[in-house]
């Protein structure tokens, strides 16, 4: 009899199909009352699959009396209650991978898209307006200053790409990085004032929540652009909407939002905003790699073999 596995939310379709071949799946996102379903149907569940953004709480562990392993489809597990897992003796795995390069590719694409008004141009052509009017010009990327908020792995990859576009690059963070020749700003407001585009790549923490606020947006100014590929809560969304609506900044490109997948209606109505559904790491290559690692760990667990990507064992 195949082991029963609870899947918290929908993941990559080929990964779901592969899981269904090996296990009996309970798809939590398909039921109207998840708590009632878990109490009624998941008493024999021995494994659960979650995601980086869904996590798994102490309460979640407590609702599955026979759970042995929690597999996270994604490299980050900060939303998983590891203390609860340890207390219950539940193994936790994740799918470590290199996401810096594809996220940086997206960020650079978003810089070009919002500054050159590519999405607006696409809508202009599709609406049949080209024969009767001239599309308003965008701005060149070349020669502009790219201010990076958080020069970690992703920030460094963005810096390399921006430099290849002949952009000037500077960065802000809690401290200057050793061995980095780029100009460093201890004051984010000061860097925003000197930047044509501000790219947010830092982790979300109590210190970075609402880091990009009204003051920073005002410093970026009416000719400046904001790109966020980090976490939605790092940018004060209300202040951003106000700045975009009033012309306080020129435009924004956003892959992340404060309350995903819900996006403020005001943003969806603005022409000078590029919106993406958190696709920074959503490449086929990354999803295939995560699928292989997820399946390898679940198969290893039920075969009594060592886990390959254990967070807790």
Task: Describe the protein's architecture and organization.
With 313 residues, the chain is α/β, with parallel strands linked by helices. It has twelve helices and 13 strands. The protein has helices at 13-22, 34-41, 58-62, 82-88, 100-116, 118-126, 153-164, 188-194, 214-220, 237-246, 265-268, 284-302, and strands at 4-7, 24-27, 45-51, 69-73, 91-93, 145-149, 168-172, 184-185, 197-200, 225-228, 251-254, 273-275, 310-312. The strands form two sheets. It has a seven-stranded parallel beta sheet with strand order 8-7-6-9-10-11-12. 37% of the residues are buried. The mean pLDDT is 96.
Biggest beta-sheet profile: 7 strands, parallel
Question: CATH architecture of the largest domain, please?
Answer: 3-Layer(aba) Sandwich
Classify the oligomer.
single chain
- What does the average pLDDT come to? 96
User: How many distinct beta strands?
Assistant: 13
Runs in which pLDDT lies below 50 for 5 or more consecutive residues are: none
Strand content: 15-25%
Q: Could you tell me how far the N terminus lies from the C terminus, measured between alpha carbons in angstroms?
A: 25 Å
| Count of all domains | 2
Proportion of helical residues = 25-40%
Q: Could you give me the name of the CATH homologous superfamily of the largest domain?
A: NAD(P)-binding Rossmann-like Domain
How large is the count of helical segments? 12
Q: What is the CA-based Rg, rounded?
A: 22 Å
Q: Class by helix and strand content?
A: alpha/beta
Major β-sheet strand ordering: 8-7-6-9-10-11-12
Sequence of secondary-structure elements: EHEHEHEHEHHEHEEHEHEHEHEHE
Instruction: Give the CATH class of the largest domain.
Output: Alpha Beta
